[in-house]
TrEMBL record:
Name this polypeptide is given: Mediator of RNA polymerase II transcription subunit 6
Quaternary assembly: Component of the Mediator complex.
Cell location: Nucleus
A Pfam family hit: Med6
Keywords in alphabetical order: Activator, Nucleus, Transcription, Transcription regulation
Recorded GO CC terms: mediator complex
Signal peptide segment: none
UniProt GO BP: regulation of transcription by RNA polymerase II
Family: Belongs to the Mediator complex subunit 6 family.
Originating species: Mizuhopecten yessoensis (Japanese scallop)
InterPro entries: Mediator_Med6 (IPR007018), Mediator_Med6_met/pln (IPR016820), Mediator_Med6_sf (IPR038566)
Disordered as annotated region, ranges: 187-242
GO molecular function: transcription coregulator activity
Length: 242
């Protein structure tokens, strides 16, 4: 089996960033035949023609491995085929390569595609059986039964909905209770206490203390004689001579 058809070649890619802006159908084969391209076989007939500077039409007259441009979809997609020529009209395809936005990939062959799909299918089936086995329960008294997580969630949801739908009382009960309450309110009317208005607390401003000075006026009595008054000398009365 050719080394390009190995499984490792399907997981690699190659590109030359300097050549990508100039890529077109006329130079795409020169881009693919770069020496750094791991998908290109340097012993092919294309390399011989390139070294001898011959036309690509000479490939029809040669025998061996060659590369041809199979399909183009400008400016993004180019398909290159690797084939073995055994005669002018007899070729055997070996591999296909597609170039998308300048990046070269190897197209998987039919066996690789079938193998990959089968592996994915078997992996999904195994995970499905493992999950189904986890839902299977067994007890000696009950036997086998299935217990699904979604079923538990749906049961919980249904129970919540039932609780919401349940009415705490019937219409008859509500009307009967309203009637009894109306009769009781007629017999014993409620007493409404008027709301008390909040009293405003006024801050008392301290008044300045006024000092009253009492003036006492002493009135002297006429009988009373003032103290420390100098008495005049007694008057001398003339003596009468008989």
């Amino acid at each position: 089996m050719d080394k390009d058809l190995s499984a490792g070649a399907l997981g690699i890619s190659w590109h030359d960033s300097t050549f990508i802006p100039l890529l077109n159908p006329s130079n795409v084969m020169d881009y693919f035949s770069e020496r750094s391209n791991p998908f290109y076989d340097h012993t092919c007939n294309n390399e011989i023609i390139k070294m001898q500077r011959l036309s690509l039409d000479q490939l029809n007259n040669m025998i061996g491995v060659e590369y041809i441009l199979l399909h183009t979809q400008e400016p993004i997609l180019y398909v290159v085929r690797k084939q073995e020529r055994n005669g002018p009209n007899h070729v055997v395809p070996l591999a296909d390569y597609y170039i998308i936005a300048g990046v070269v990939y190897q197209a998987p062959d039919l066996a690789s595609v079938i193998n990959s799909r089968l592996l994915n299918t078997l992996s999904n089936l195994k995970s499905a059986f493992d999950e189904a086995q986890s839902f299977s329960k067994y007890h000696p008294s009950k036997g086998y039964w299935w217990e699904f997580k979604d079923q538990e969630a749906s049961d919980k949801k249904e129970s919540k909905e039932k609780k919401k739908k349940e009415v705490p009382s019937s219409m008859f009960q509500r009307q009967r209770v309203d009637l009894l309450l109306g009769e009781l309110s007629k017999k014993f009317p409620p007493k409404f206490i008027p709301p008390t208005q909040p009293t405003e607390v006024k801050e008392e401003v301290p008044k300045p203390e006024t000092v009253t000075v009492k003036q006492e006026i002493k009135q002297e009595k006429p009988d009373e004689k003032p103290a420390n008054v100098i008495k005049p000398p007694p008057e001398k009365k003339p003596k009468l001579i008989r």
